[in-house]
């Protein structure tokens, strides 16, 4: 068996029908390397709507020519897609060979019946996206592709499944199930061999068994191996093993796969909550969308890995894929880095939320799409829960709950080793019952914020109502874990009403983390919290922005807003103030953090935004006159804070007035050194300092790594910052920067975290935001890559990166 990346050598263009091509030639195709997002380079406009970040939809055509040798005539050739958004149709030599409506499902297309041997062949993929989601989806072949060539007797696609059904300190039972397929014309008896290898490649257990398959048939072989003194996988020590599986006919190995897995145990009960390897774990969770900020929806391996690394560094130990299955690349990263995963199947079942969404395909395709998710996840130790949906209206209906039962049982039939949840929003489950009174309340307040804004204002009284208790009981009853969106009002209530119910806050308001975390620590049946959101994302533009009483209130922000602006990390990966406060809540940070509200809004009165934080940044450099009034927030686990400017105490404030774990100071801006000193019971617990930028500004450029792999999965993330001579970030001025790349790489994207951005991410120029921008460079071959960064009136900076040929990947 050979499995090779099929990401190179593609071209993409807008799809033109055969009739349109009669009138004139189609648009020229542009060469691309997958994963690729065809939407991110399109022109945005106000008429396209805030949900999709004001990007238009479209239909796109990808094509690739590849050589097919004669020897493949006696082999099986397949093409694997990790995800095509969406309504994909795959053609081979202009003949339809496969289809997949759901944009997030992996699937495989059998190419053999359509190939022409000994000559070039063409694969063409159509993808279309139009008013089919509530967020920015991107479009096209946005995840990896792989070409798989096997002998006629071979391991089936995703045909190696590793479980560890019995684990203790002395040994772990590792069961390897192997799907052996025979596409030949005669009965074959082969031997399946399994080697279990540790993280340095030493064989620690092995086993083998014969298996006979009929012509055109298949059989499962199950081999149990025993690993002595197993090293267990967990978030703090993500130990991975490998299972090398060989299918041997006589003395010839006809197929071989290598699969990574982890040894760990999961237990669940209302007294101890979630236990991993016997230890209770509270999930410090982040909801994440699938886009990668300025890269759009392209799920390039290094971008997925970096997202996981940054979230873990910010204090999270778990992510929830919102609201669709994760890419294989991100699951691999979670395994390596040590991040727990709730992988979520759908945002809709039969009730639509957008005009042309997946609900149109759900009745016919849900079972195959659940299979695709579970079979992708089953060998990943990071995955601990499957979620069968998000805010599904059917969950408040008895017959609608039957769908949840079918989904949950389908998941369990495929993988009984993990737990099942569902992100149930009590408001959405009963929306028909409450709609009229909520409309009346909104009308009386002159509010046009829409359903999500109403949710923010009335969630507590709705979530805790007896109607919700009754209407959601059956839907919660089919789950192992009751996933609750914005329903912290039920945490303590359900401990009495449903003593066997285990609860997870699958989606929560960011500003409620201190209150929610106290509930989680105080209630063993509540196993964690997943904030909306960990990483900012494109689409649902402006839902987390601060709004003020002097302007009309709305859920979505007007054009040119592009980002939701509700993430702990912005779309370039920089931490925002909420992230540091959350880290203190989690007990992972003792040093106080200073956040300063933007002084231009000082006299305006903010409204309570459900997904907003204060409009603040960690800076004491402002383009205002000395003496300008300004508001300072200090986050701390102390009970008092001194605010000190240039050694002089300005004031001492008690912590926890209007905001938990926060002391708020009203003061005047004076350039200098601003310090916050935290106290508990009169003793200092920590201090931190901000300094004003002074003197000349210079350009500071740094890469996350200087040596890259010369393959389609790697990237270099290059931070571009404006700093003074002492290294202080200059947030008070923004400049246009330009980036050029020469040698063995290309500029994949350039942008900033500005949430109301009119600039594109696919050009070589972009303005900084709060003193920062981010460039992403992608290697194209082995060799040197020269990156030149310039900014107006500043000295240019040149970086040299090196792309090295990676070792050949093993089949997996």
TrEMBL record:
Residue ranges annotated for the Glycosyl hydrolases family 2 sugar binding domain, each copy included: 52-148
Q: What is this protein called?
A: Uncharacterized protein DUF4982
What GO terms describe the biological role, i.e. biological process, of this protein? carbohydrate metabolic process
Q: Which residues form the Glycoside hydrolase family 2 catalytic domain?
A: 274-421
Which InterPro entries does its entry note? Beta-gal/glucu_dom_sf, DUF4982, Galactose-bd-like_sf, GH, GH2_Domain-Containing, Glyco_hydro2_dom5, Glyco_hydro_2, Glyco_hydro_2_cat
Q: Where is the Glycoside hydrolase family domain?
A: 699-797
Q: Which terms does the record give in the GO molecular function aspect?
A: hydrolase activity, hydrolyzing O-glycosyl compounds
Organism field: Kribbella caucasensis
Tell me where in this chain the Glycoside hydrolase family 2 immunoglobulin-like beta-sandwich domain is found.
Answer: 160-264
UniProt keyword list: Glycosidase, Hydrolase
Any single Pfam family the record assigns to this protein: Glyco_hydro_2_N
Which part of the chain is the DUF4982 domain?
627-685
**According to the entry, what is the taxonomic lineage of the organism?**
Bacteria, Bacillati, Actinomycetota, Actinomycetes, Propionibacteriales
Give the protein family: Belongs to the glycosyl hydrolase 2 family.
């Amino acid at each position: 068996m050979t499995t090779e990346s099929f990401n190179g050598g593609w071209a993409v263009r807008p799809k033109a029908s055969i009739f349109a091509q009669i009138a004139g030639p189609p648009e020229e195709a542009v060469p691309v390397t997958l994963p690729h997002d065809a939407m991110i380079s399109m022109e945005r406009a106000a008429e396209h709507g805030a949900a999709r970040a004001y990007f238009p939809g479209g239909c796109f055509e990808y094509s690739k020519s590849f050589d097919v040798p004669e020897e493949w005539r006696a082999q099986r050739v397949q093409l694997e897609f990790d995800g095509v958004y969406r309504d994909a149709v795959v053609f081979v030599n202009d003949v339809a060979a496969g289809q997949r409506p759901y944009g997030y499902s992996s699937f495989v297309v059998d190419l053999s019946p359509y190939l022409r041997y000994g000559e070039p062949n063409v694969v063409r993929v159509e993808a279309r996206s139009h008013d089919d989601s509530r967020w920015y989806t991107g479009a096209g072949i946005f995840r990896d592709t792989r070409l798989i060539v096997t002998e006629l007797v071979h391991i089936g696609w995703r045909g190696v499944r590793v479980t560890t059904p019995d684990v203790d300190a002395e040994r772990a039972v590792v069961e390897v199930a192997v799907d052996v397929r025979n596409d030949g014309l005669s009965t074959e008896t082969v031997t399946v061999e399994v080697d279990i290898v540790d993280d340095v490649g030493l064989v620690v257990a092995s086993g083998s068994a014969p298996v006979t398959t009929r012509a055109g048939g298949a059989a499962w072989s199950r081999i149990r191996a025993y690993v002595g003194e197993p090293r267990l996988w967990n978030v703090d020590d993500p130990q991975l093993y490998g299972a090398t599986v060989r299918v041997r006919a006589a003395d010839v190995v006809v197929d071989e796969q290598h699969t990574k897995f982890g040894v760990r145990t999961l237990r669940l009960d209302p007294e101890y909550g979630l236990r991993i390897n016997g230890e209770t774990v509270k999930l410090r969770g982040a909801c994440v969308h699938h886009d990668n900020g300025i890269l759009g929806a392209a799920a390039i391996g290094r971008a997925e890995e970096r997202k996981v690394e940054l979230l873990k560094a910010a204090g999270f130990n778990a992510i929830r894929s919102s609201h669709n299955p994760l890419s294989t690349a991100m699951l691999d990263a979670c395994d390596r880095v040590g991040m727990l995963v709730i992988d979520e199947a759908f945002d809709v079942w039969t009730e639509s939320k957008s005009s042309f969404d997946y609900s149109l395909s759900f009745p016919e395709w849900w079972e195959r799409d659940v299979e695709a998710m579970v079979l992708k996840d089953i060998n990943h130790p990071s995955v601990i829960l499957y979620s069968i949906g998000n805010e599904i209206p059917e969950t408040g209906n008895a017959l609608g709950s039957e769908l949840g039962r079918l989904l949950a049982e389908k998941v369990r039939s495929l993988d009984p080793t993990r737990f099942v949840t569902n992100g149930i929003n009590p408001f959405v489950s009963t929306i028909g019952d409450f709609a009229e009174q909520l409309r009346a309340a909104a009308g009386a307040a002159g509010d046009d914020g829409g359903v999500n804004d109403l949710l923010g204002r009335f969630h507590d009284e709705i979530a805790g109502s007896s109607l919700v208790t009754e209407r959601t009981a059956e839907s919660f009853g089919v789950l192992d874990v009751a996933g609750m969106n914005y329903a912290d009002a039920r945490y303590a209530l359900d401990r009495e009403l449903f003593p066997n119910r285990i609860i997870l806050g699958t989606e929560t308001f960011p500003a409620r983390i201190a209150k929610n975390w106290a509930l989680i620590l105080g209630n063993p049946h509540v196993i964690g919290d997943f904030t909306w959101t960990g990483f900012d994302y494109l689409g649902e533009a402006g839902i987390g922005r601060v709004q003020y009483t002097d302007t009309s209130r709305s859920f979505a922000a007007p054009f040119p807003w592009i980002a939701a602006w509700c993430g702990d990390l912005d779309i370039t990966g920089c931490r925002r103030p909420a992230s540091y406060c959350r880290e203190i809540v989690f007990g992972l940070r003792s040093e106080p953090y200073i956040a300063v509200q933007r002084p231009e809004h000082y006299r305006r009165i903010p409204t309570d935004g459900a997904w907003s934080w204060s409009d603040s940044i960690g800076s004491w450099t402002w383009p205002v006159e000395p003496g300008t009034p300004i508001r300072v927030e200090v986050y701390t686990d102390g009970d008092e804070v001194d605010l000190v400017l240039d050694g002089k105490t300005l004031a001492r404030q008690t912590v926890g007035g209007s905001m938990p774990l926060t002391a708020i100071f009203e003061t005047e801006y004076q350039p200098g050194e601003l310090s916050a000193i935290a106290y508990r019971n009169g003793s200092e617990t920590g201090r931190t300092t901000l300094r004003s930028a002074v003197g000349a500004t210079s350009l500071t450029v740094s890469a996350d790594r200087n040596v890259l792999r010369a393959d389609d999965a790697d990237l270099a993330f290059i931070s571009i910052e404006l700093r003074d001579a002492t290294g202080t970030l200059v947030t008070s001025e923004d400049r246009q920067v330009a980036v050029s790349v020469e040698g063995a790489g290309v500029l994949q994207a350039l942008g900033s975290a500005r949430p109301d951005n009119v600039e594109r991410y696919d050009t070589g120029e972009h303005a900084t935001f709060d003193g920062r921008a981010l460039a992403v460079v992608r290697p194209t071959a082995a060799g040197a890559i020269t990156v030149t960064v310039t900014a107006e009136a500043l000295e240019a900076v040149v970086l040299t990166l090196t792309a090295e040929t990676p070792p050949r990947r093993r089949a997996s």
